[in-house]
Amino acid sequence: MSPLALMQNVKIKDWKANERRPLVFAENVDKLPDVLAKLVNNRILSMPVYHYNTKEYLGMIDMIDISKVIADLHWKCIAQSKSYREADIYVTYNDMTVQDVLDKNTESHHVTPGAKDDLNGPGLKVYDEADLATVARIFAKTGHRRVPILVRNKDGVSQVSHLITQSEIVRFLYSNISQLESRYLLRKIGNMAHFKQQNQTQNDSENGIIMVNAIAKAIEAFRVIVERKVSAVPIVDANQKLIATISVRDIRSISHDASQIKLLYENDCLQFSKIIRNREDNLALTPAVTCSLDDTMEDVLVRLNESKIHRVWIVDNTKKLVGVVALRDILAELSS
Questions:
Q1: pTM higher than the cut 0.85
Q2: Which of 74, 61, 92 is nearest to 220 (CA)?
Q3: 166, 172, 165, 202: which is closest to 328 by C-alpha?
C-alpha cells in the first residue's frame, strides 16, 4: 500500500480518539513567561489561544513565536550597555502578553472567521471529518508544525478539539510500516525530490545550507531560526562539520527565570548547547542525529521515531554537513 492510500483510509475523528490528552491552552491576556512555563511543563511546543472573555479561538502560540520575541528584543537593545540591556529585556519580556505576540506576528496562526480550507494561508481550518492525508499535505505544503482540529458545537460554532502534529503523522506511518510497499521505504535520501531541490538551491545561492558557526553567540542561532522559519539549526565548526544542534526547544532553558535570557547573548553556540544539556530539568534534549545520502526512507523513519526528534542531518563520510531531512520533507515525499 502507498503511504497516501494508508492515510486516506483514516478519518481524523476516528483516529486515536481514546488517546487524546486534555487540551492545554492559553488566553490572550496571559503573560509570556507563564505561557512558556506552561509549554515546558506540559512538554509541548505550541498551544491554542482563546479570548479570555468570549472564549473565541484566536490562533496558536508556539516556541518559535517566543524565540522571535527574545531575538527581536535583543537586537532592539543591542546598542545599550550590558546592564541596561539586560534590565530592558527582562522587564519588557515579563510584561508581554500573548495578545502582544499575536498582534506583532504578521504571519500568525490566526483563524480568519469564515475562511475556507486553504493550504496557503493563516485562515486554514481543518475539521475532524477530514482524513490524515489532508493533514499530511498541509504539513508538506505550508510548513505548519501542528494543525488545530476543529469541531462544530450544537450552535454551529467552531471549537478546537485537539492538535495533530507532524510527529504524530510520522509515528503513524512508522507504526504501520509493514503495510507500506518497499518501493517507498527503500528510496534513498539522495534521490528524494526534496533533497534534489535543496541541492539545487545550494548551487543557485550563496547562502547554501542553513548553519551557524560554533563560535557565534547563541542569540544568533535563534535569529537564524526566526528569520529562516525553521525549528532548529545545525552548529558547525570551521570546516562545516556538524557538532551540535540548537532548536526552539532550547528556549526552555529560560522558562523558570526570565533573567536567564542573558545565557543567549553571553555564550557562544557551543557553550550554550553544553550548558542546557547539563541542566537536570532539560530531559528532552538529544544530540544531533545524522544519516547519509545512501540511507533509505525506512532508515530515517526509524531514527526519527527512536530518537523522538524532528529532523535528521545529512552528512558525508567526513561528517561535513550536506543537508537535512525534516518531518515536513518525509511527509511531502510520502503524501505525494
A1: no
A2: 74
A3: 166
Q: Which three cell numbers stand for residue 135?
A: 493533514
Task: Kindly report, residue by residue over 32-54, the tens digit of the pLDDT.
Answer: 999 998 998 888 888 889 899 98
Full DSSP string of 6-71: HHHT-BGGGTTTTTPPPPP-EETTSBHHHHHHHHHHTT-SEEEEE-TTT--EEEEEEHHHHHHHHH
Q: How far apart are CA 322 and CA 199, in angstroms?
A: 9
- Grid coordinates representing 249? 526547544
Tell me the per-residue pLDDT of 226-259, one tens digit each, with 9 for 90 and over. Answer: 888 888 899 999 999 998 899 888 877 666 666 6
Is there a contact between 298 and 3 (Cβ–Cβ < 8 Å)?
A: no
Length of the chain equals 336
Tens digit of each residue's pLDDT (9 = 90 or more) over 177-189: 999 999 999 999 9
Asked if 265 contacts 256 with a C-beta cutoff of 8 angstroms, the reply is no
End-to-end CA gap in the chain = 14
Contacts of 40 (CB under 8 A, 6+ apart): 252, 255, 256
Kindly report the number of other CB atoms within 10 A of residue 146's CB atom. 21
Among 153, 155, 122, which residue's Cα sits nearest to residue 138? 122
Per-residue cell: 309 = 526528534
Distinct helix (H) and strand (E) counts, the chain: 14, 12
